[in-house]
Amino acid sequence: MEKDHPLRCPVCLGRLRKNDKSYVCGKNHSFDIARQGYVNLLPVQNKHSRSPGDTKAMLLARREFLYAGFYEPVCRDAAELINKYKKTQYPLIADIGSGEGYYTQQLQRLCSADCIGVDISKEAAKMSCSRSRDILWIVATASHLPVEDESIDVITAVFSLFVNDEYARVLKKGGIVVEISAGNRHLTELKSIIYDEVFIQVKHQSAFSDSFSELCSFDREFRIKTDNAQLRALLGMTPHTHRISKEQSSRLESISELELTVNYLVRVLEKK
Ligand SMILES: C[S@@+](CC[C@H](N)C(=O)[O-])C[C@H]1O[C@@H](n2cnc3c(N)ncnc32)[C@H](O)[C@@H]1O
């Protein structure tokens, strides 16, 4: 049976209904479903550049790296927390900043969930369609989610954004946010190769408003061993790839294997 997702029009905020090839609101604002299957609900005024978000090259690198399964423990943590704290057997999950769709697809399976993958990058939504046609992939910004108030059971934000008011608006009462963000020691070995000096940044999770209470929070660390191609893919999927010179990037060439620290912070917040 066709799922009726709680989407709202990014122009007039009216409820969107799915037709054959588009989503349309009561005021006839219409959004075509792309050939690949995603829908673009990002109006120009919410677009702060021509092609916001991760580029195709970054997304391909991300897909190549994730394909090796290095971040499976991250996925398992997210799934276990959702299954522990979810209030309904078959939750509706909105995965925000879903990238090329790795976590969204895994969470759908591991949590018996219906999933919406949201990313500001059109390339991300396009690429995600090849992962699953059973997930609704949308182009939108985390700060103006095109979904109805109090309609989502779980928000996941894996290495992406936490947006207090917007997440509070769309979550049902008792709904949860599972947030995973990079920790202080995340990938330090990679940074030590490409940068002359590495400053350990003390990472803090962003403050949350009175709309939420914290259910749990912890720091996780494990080690992975990458070969040269995986290391390059890892560099390619991070913002470092745009920040460094050719010379810095070429420092990776001679490295055949590298052991890396994966360090991340996990937090679960509940909407009051
Ligand atoms: C570091 S990547 C993480 C992707 C995915 N969660 C993963 O871990 O594989 C961050 C993603 O957030 C997206 N993004 C950046 N700003 C955004 C925004 N304002 N709203 C929605 N997505 C955004 C980027 O396009 C990118 O795909």
What would the principal axes of the Cα set say about the shape? Answer: globular
Tell me the fraction of residues in β-strands, as a range: 25-35%
CATH class: Alpha Beta
- Calculate the mean pLDDT score and round it: 95
Placed side by side, the strands forming the largest sheet appear as 4-7-6-5-8-9-11-10
Classify the secondary structure makeup into a structural class. alpha/beta
Spatial extent as radius of gyration: 19 Å
Characterization of this structure:
With 272 residues, this protein is an alpha/beta fold. It has one domain: 3-Layer(aba) Sandwich (Rossmann fold), CATH 3.40.50. It is built from nine helices and eleven strands. Strand 1 (17-18) and strand 2 (22-24) form a beta hairpin. The two termini are 32 Å apart. The mean pLDDT is 95. The site of S-adenosylmethionine has 21 residues, from helix 3 and strand 6.
Q: What does the secondary structure layout of this molecule look like, with pairings?
A:
Elements: E1 17-18, E2 22-24, E3 30-32, E4 39-40, H1 56-67, H2 72-85, E5 92-96, H3 102-110, E6 114-119, H4 122-128, E7 136-139, E8 152-158, H5 164-170, E9 171-182, H6 188-194, E10 212-227, H7 228-237, H8 240-243, H9 246-250, E11 257-271
Parallel strand pairs: 4-7, 5-6, 5-8, 6-7, 8-9
Antiparallel strand pairs: 1-2, 2-3, 9-11, 10-11
Helix pairs in contact: 1-7, 2-3
Bound molecules: S-adenosylmethionine.
